[in-house]
Amino acid sequence: MNNRITTLFQIKYPIIQAGMVWCSGWRLASAVSNAGGLGIIGAGSMYPEVLRLHIQKCQAATDLPFAVNVPLLYPNIEEIMQIIVEEGVKIVFTSAGNPATWTGLLKENGITVVHVIANTKFATKAEACGVDAIVAEGFEAGGHNGREETTTMCLIPMIADAVQIPVIAAGGIGSGSAMLAAFALGAEAVQIGSAFAVAEESSAHNNFKSGIIAANEGDTKLQMKKLVPVRLLKNTFADAVAVAEAEGANPEALKQLLGRARAKLGMFEGNMEEGELEIGQVSALLKEIKPAAKILKTIWQEFLTEKERLNRLEFPA
After folding, report:
1. 42 near 299, Cβ under 8 Å?
2. Pick from 5, 22, 17: nearest CA to 293
3. Which of 70, 12, 78, 27 lies closest to 45 in space, CA to CA?
4. DSSP string of 259-286, one letter each residue
5. Residue 206's CB: how many other CB atoms inside 10 A?
6. Which residue of 186, 217, 243, 313 has the fewest C-beta atoms within 10 A of its own C-beta?
7. Beta pairing, strands 15-17 & 230-233
8. Alpha carbons within 13 A on the beta-carbon side of 57
């Protein structure tokens, strides 16, 4: 397939692996890129020099395009951006902050910039800042989420109508049929997180991967909306958050309950009760840990199969 996204990133398939904290290191990113998609290193859980090492290892593992995802609220953001420029990264996905701050510098250094948003207001602002594409992430997504709780089915057509640059759909997409639906709504690519979180190459702990595979419908919930909204797999920690929120906990109380390194404890170290387990609603559909290349190719083949099935349907004039 050739469209604005495959041309922009110079990739074979319009399938992008999300930059997930504690899941998306160089092994996963390079595996997705080598399979024809766009792999992303998630910088949000990395110290600056750790990120530099992952970039270098990814460059050694693939000669195909890959990206780095950078939350703009990162405490060492200046150092992170300097490393990205120094190491010759060609594509950056930014999130959780104002793209006006860094888009200009990145583009001056020949870097393609994509920004992640969850509403029309920030989509148009990101476009005005000069980003090359937008990830429109719906309410179903794992990890940090939009306060508006707009679902992907509603968000994508609104964003596609609001901007002229390409739109990448995210949130609740883990199959070829979901990808086809996103394209019907105006997307030109999909960004997939949860399905790649359980890839063999994901740096997530096996306990977390097994927990995702075992998840059923309703086993995730969007929480901490007074602090930073995040979709979590239900466990002891999530239950404690729910109790605190029901009792009217303010942002400071929620921050204290969250503590430090809670996501690392769960997703990277495998503590399935006390850790913060960020994952999307589509986890209920994931039933197997597989290589990233197999995940990508399966989604693409499902996309083509469903497209052909719809083409064969006969509708009255």
Report:
1. no
2. 17
3. 70
4. -SSHHIIIIIT--TTTS--B--GGGGG-
5. 11
6. 313
7. unpaired
8. 15
Residues near 304 by beta carbon (within 8 Å), at least 6 away in sequence: 176
Structure tokens at 55: 């970039």
Q: How far is CA 304 from CA 91, 161, 315, in A?
A: 27, 25, 20
Nearest to 194 by CA among 297, 302, 286, 69: 286
CA–CA gap between residue 173 and residue 177 (Å, rounded): 9
Residue-wise pLDDT for 6-21, tens only, equals: 999 999 999 999 999 9
Alpha carbon distance 250, 139 (integer Å): 22
Structure tokens at 215: 């998840």
Question: Hey, what are 45's tokens?
Answer: 């859980």
First to last CA, the chain: 29
pLDDT per residue as tens digits for the range 39-89: 999 998 899 999 999 999 999 999 999 999 999 988 889 999 999 999 999
Domain-wise residue ranges, the chain? 4-204+283-294, 218-279
Give me 81's structure tokens.
């951006």
Separation between Cα atoms, residue 195 and residue 109, nearest integer Å: 32
pTM over 0.90: yes
Taking the C-alpha atoms of residue 302 and residue 315, their distance in angstroms, rounded to an integer, is 22
Contact criterion met (CB below 8 Å) for 225 and 147: yes
DSSP run (H or E) holding 33: helix 26-34
- Using pLDDT thresholds of 50, 70 and 90, give the confidence band for residue 147: confident
Distances from the Cα of 117 to the Cα of 114, 121, 170, angstroms: 10, 9, 10
Residue 26's pLDDT is what? 98
Condensed to tens digits (0 to 9), the pLDDT of residues 202-216 reads 999 999 999 999 999
The 10 Å Cβ neighbour count of residue 92 is 28
Burial 1-28 (b: 16+ CB within 10 A, else e): eeeebbebbebbbbbbbbbbbbbbbbbb
Q: Which two tokens mark 122?
A: 């920030």
User: What's the CATH number for 4-204+283-294?
Assistant: 3.20.20.70
